[in-house]
Each structure stands twice: as C-alpha cells, then as structure tokens.
Amino acid sequence: MKTYKDLDVYNEAFRLAADVHKMSMDLPKTEMYELGSQIRRSAQSVRANIVEGYGRRKYKADFLRFLITANASLLETESHLEMLNDLYDKDEIRRLIINSSDLGKKMHRFIEFVQKNWKTRS
Fold first, then answer.
1. DSSP-derived secondary structure letter, 28
2. For 7-21, how does the pLDDT look when each residue is reduced to its tens digit (9 = 90+)?
3. How many angstroms separate the CA atoms of 98 and 111, rounded?
4. Phi, psi angle pair for 37, to nearest 5°
5. Other residues' Cβ atoms within 10 Å of the Cβ of residue 42
6. What is the per-residue DSSP string for 39-61?
7. Nearest-CA neighbor of 23 among 95, 86, 75?
8. pLDDT tens-digit series, residues 44-92
9. Cα(75)–Cα(56) distance, integer angstroms
C-alpha cells in the first residue's frame, strides 16, 4: 500500500459519502438542514477517519482507534439512512443502506486484519 487511496474500505467510504451527499440534497428543504446535514457529516467522518488512521499507520493502536471510529460513524450513517427510509421510502435510500452494510462487513474484516497482521516499523 502506497497511499490510503489503495484501501478498498477508503474507496467505498468515499463513494458512500459522495452518494449520501447527493441523495441528501434531494431531501425536502426542512430535512436537508436537519437529518440531511447530520447524515452528510457522519458519512464524511467514515472516510476522514480512515484517512487519518492511515496517516498514523506506523502506530498500530492509533490506526485501529481511527478505524474503529470510522466504523462507529458508519453505524451512525446507517441509522440515519434507516430513519430516512422509514420517512421517505425511496429505492436510492435502500440502495445506500445495502452499500453501508456491505462496507461495514469490509470494515470489520479490515479491522480484524490490522489487529492480527499489521506490522509497525521502527
């Protein structure tokens, strides 16, 4: 890995954040500034924490802490998506729920990989 952009979890988190942003801009005006704003921030947090953790990858514990934070933000994003789906019942929101769930599985596997196999250099 030369850069965080080589991480599948980063690329999927980036795509999810972009897709969530686009979807949230089509919400009713009142929702755009309430739940829409919250879901945009949580989705961006997933991507940002993966990047920040990668920047600290030399220190395994730091890397793991940021990956776990990214995963927590992903769960928050998924919860917001479930609320939006309940309120608006759109195919696009259901697709984003599936994408976030798939990313969650990959994040879990990546966190396990880092816990078991990540080597730090002195």
1. -
2. 999 999 999 999 999
3. 20
4. -65, -45
5. 21
6. HHHHHHHHHHHHHHHHHTTTSHH
7. 95
8. 999 999 999 999 999 999 999 999 999 999 999 999 999 999 999 899 9
9. 23
Q: Taking the model in full, what pTM does it have?
A: 0.93
What letter represents residue 107's amino acid? M
For CA atoms 102, 78, 38, 85, give the dihedral sign.
positive
**Amino acid identity of 27?**
L
How far is 117 from 33, CA to CA, in rounded Å?
Answer: 42
Helices vs. strands in the chain: H and E counts, helices first: 5, 0
Rounded Cα distance between 114 and 38, Å, is 29
CA angle 44, 79, 66 (to 5 degrees): 45
Half-sphere exposure of 69 (CA within 13 A, CB side): 16
